[in-house]
Amino acid sequence: MSEFHETRMGRVFHEVTLPKLIEQLARLNESVERLAKAIEADAARAERDHEGNTSR
């Protein structure tokens, strides 16, 4: 019996599916990083606004 990577389905998986999956994971990671930065910036802005309102 052939190994998976030696089959047609295995070749398609390794040559097409896996690279596409890796590309999408990289895009997802970039999106999560941008979202995290936006949340951090929003939290910092809210903290500054709160500090400005309580010092009056």
Keywords:
56 residues; mainly alpha; 0% strand
Structure report:
By secondary structure, this protein is mainly alpha-helical. It is 84% helix and 0% strand. The chain has 1 helix and no strands. It has one helix at 8-54. The chain is rod-shaped and about 75 Å long.
What is the residue-mean pLDDT, rounded to a whole number?
93
Provide the succession of SSEs: H
**Strand portion, in percent?**
under 5%
Backbone shape: rod-shaped
Helix percent band = over 70%
Separation, N- and C-terminal Cα atoms? 78 Å
Low-confidence stretches: none
Strand count, sense and closure of the main sheet? Answer: none
β-strand number? 0
Number of helices: 1
How would you classify the helix and strand content by structural class?
mainly alpha
Radius of gyration: 23 Å
Helix-strand layout with pairing:
Blueprint: H1 8-54
What would you say about this model in short?
By secondary structure, this protein is mainly alpha-helical. It has one helix at residues 8-54.
